[in-house]
Amino acid sequence: MDHTYIEESGLVERYHQGLLPPEEEARFEAHFVTCSDCMEQLELARGFQRGLKAAAAEDAVRAVVRAGLFAWLARRGRLAQWGLALAVLLLAAGVPSLWLLGQGRNERQTAQGRIEAERRTATDLERRLAGSEQRRIEERRDLERQLAEARQPSPSPVGILERPLANMPIVLLTAVRGEAGEPAATVDLSSTGDLLALAVDAGADPRFASYRVTITKAGATVFRQAGLKPNALETLMVTFPKTFFKPGEYRLLLEGVRADGGTAEIGGYPFRVVRKG
Fold it and tell me: Which terminus of the chain, N or C, has fewer Cβ atoms within 10 Å?
């Protein structure tokens, strides 16, 4: 809230008269508590109104004196007239002063109460904001930790590729429609060697420059690899160490990647991993 808006909208006068909506009144109070210029204008407006009320009180006293007391004094002696007139004048001078003192004290108490309420509200909001910020920091750290774990390469057996491989298990997966479906393939870890390969029939589709494979377990991604190409038999094959998989239900999602980077789902391939031995 800037001073141009305050002056153009007449916020000082409207606030003093109690004409501001509650939301705008709260915003203006939050501003003038720390703004000496607005506080000075508000005090000037209050002083001007107090002067008007004092003048009105004096006029009322004079009217009462002229209408009633002077008629009564007309029937009394001159000494009584002068004495009572002096008392009335003293009363007329004292009443506005007493009223102004009480009014000023009430306004100061009201303003102080509002300032204290604003401070308590600000303190509460700061505490809630700090708590919310701390929760966001903790959630971010947790997500970063999970991302780092997901990006860690899976351990591979040492020395496997130092010798020729023969009879490596190859599991051919069959696509099913939708997310659900009974796995058509089962991998028994107790009957495989150190490596096993998952194979899917990618076909020959000129729309795609490469393929991407994503493997999930219980909705969580455990493997993702892009830039894959099918072999001469149009089969896409991904080889894993058998220690990569734990018993459970898995799903392989095959996507085609176009030259412009766009992707299209080709099929989902559920499979089950067990350890019978």
Answer: C
